[in-house]
Amino acid sequence: GAGVSQSPRYKVAKRGQDVALRCDPISGHVSLFWYQQALGQGPEFLTYFQNEAQLDKSGLPSDRFFAERPEGSVSTLKIQRTQQEDSAVYLCASSLSGGSPEAFFGQGTRLTVV
Amino acid sequence: AQKITQTQPGMFVQEKEAVTLDCTYDTSDQSYGLFWYKQPSSGEMIFLIYQGSYDEQNATEGRYSLNFQKARKSANLVISASQLGDSAMYFCAMRYNFNKFYFGSGTKLNVKP
Fold first, then answer.
1. Cβ separation of A43 and B91 shorter than 8 Å?
2. Is B33 in contact with A48 (Cβ distance < 8 A)?
């Protein structure tokens, strides 16, 4: 596709529910990032993939958060037993390769936990 | 620890005038990249401009320029001839080792007609 695509755009989950957020990066982009953006704040790093390898997951806030990119393309961020503090916009970004400095972001998924 | 500081939570500028958005950073690395992204109300982060730490000239992209002062560790964004469509949140970010980005807290720019 022309850009990074995320789905769903909006998700309302009841506390305790599991959710799965999808990211379709730009075709051919090797690197993929997930960020969490709380209201009124800058994005905070969650995790990073190079192809299918998860090279950095230091930003995942708890073991309820899990991300995968099994074929080195589409990625899924899963949050188990959602809590109210998980409410945020989840942004996905991709970049061409390790030598390409800029990353391109999707429109994000706004998760609201009620 | 890497850190990005944006000290202006909100800014106003008159249409057609220039505006400078401040950004300072803290790193002990010699090789890094500095970025500015625009985030309109739709939520998407739009890449605006990039400056490499070894680039001697300030980056420019159309109406955007990055005032890079390495010794002062500042990377201010200058928008010339502001337009109403420039109203948005602006984030400064740093990336090193082509790894994760570190973002500042953002500046909300309002362009007045």
1. yes
2. no
